[in-house]
Amino acid sequence: MPGTHIRTIAMTAAGLLSAVTLPMATAGPASATTTAYDSTYYKNAIGKTGASLKSSLHTIISSQTKISYSAVWNALMATDQDPNNSNNVILLYSGVSRAKSLNGGDVGDWNREHTWAKSHGDFGEATGPGTDLHHLRPADVQVNSVRGNKDFDNGGSTVTNGGGSLTDSDSFEPRDADKGDVARMILYMAVRYDGGDGFADLEPNEKVNNGSAAYIGKLSVLKQWSDEDPPSAFEEKRNQVIYDTYQHNRNPFIDHPEWVESIW
């Protein structure tokens, strides 16, 4: 059976062991999922693949309420609230739980990380891609500075207080628990911003050192990360809060991680 291997276990009625084989699933591509939004929010995308799926999702998620960059502070305090401490937020890359009140630009603070680096496509902090909560996350000021506007790839040296994240001269590798989150945020941005709205057409590619070009790499690595680190309960709740309270649009790759492979 593809994607499985055989584990031998067994037991007779008397409790004695005998040979019985059972299949045990191993990690593989994300299987198709079904959500409560398939018959409503995603109804025009269901059953599509490739460019047709991407186009349909772009139309769906482009209907959103935009917020200002200053409003992002309070929004992140809700979207990224520590489920075990309502006074704190969980920081991207490091995984640290830090007081909501420590938002700012000093050492020990957390600030607003643009996962799709705002220089890649030169959208800055403009309302739209510069304020889209689906890729904005709280991050430690110093760890955020280390990431800078680097592309994403595997390898490098340990980031101080980075929770296991790595970096080199031209790329950043988040800690394992955030790899899928990063991938799905990047791919959301690529679908949401396609050259309309007066902004650049954002796309993933296979390069690093993309600079101010409207690309972020590496796509093959991002696809691997999305597959190996499926959506967590924290990520799913975050998606719901953004949908219910702020932008009223969703990240489709959290709801349907298999759509990553369908499009790319």
Describe this structure in words.
The chain is of the alpha+beta class. The chain has one domain. 29% of the residues lie in helices and 18% in strands. The strands form five sheets. The chain has a four-stranded mixed β-sheet, with no helix packed on it. The chain has a three-stranded antiparallel β-sheet with strand order 3-4-5. α4 packs across α5. It is globular, with a radius of gyration of 20 Å. The N terminus is likely disordered.
Distance between the termini: 26 Å
| Tally of DSSP β-strands | 13
Please compute the radius of gyration using only Cα atoms: 20 Å
Q: Which percent range describes the beta-strand content?
A: 15-25%
Total domain count: 1
User: Helix tally?
Assistant: 8
Low-confidence stretches: 1-29
Largest sheet: 4 strands, mixed
Mean pLDDT: 90
Protein name: Endonuclease
Region (Disordered): 147-177
Keywords: Endonuclease, Hydrolase, Nuclease, Signal
Signal peptide: 1-32
List strands and helices in order, with pairings.
Blueprint: E1 4-9, E2 20-25, H1 50-61, H2 72-79, E3 81-82, E4 85-90, E5 97-99, E6 110-114, E7 136-140, H3 141-147, E8 151-152, E9 157-158, E10 166-167, E11 171-173, H4 176-192, E12 203-205, E13 215-217, H5 219-228, H6 233-246, H7 252-255, H8 259-263
Parallel strand pairs: 8-11, 12-13
Antiparallel strand pairs: 1-2, 3-4, 4-5, 6-7, 9-10, 10-11
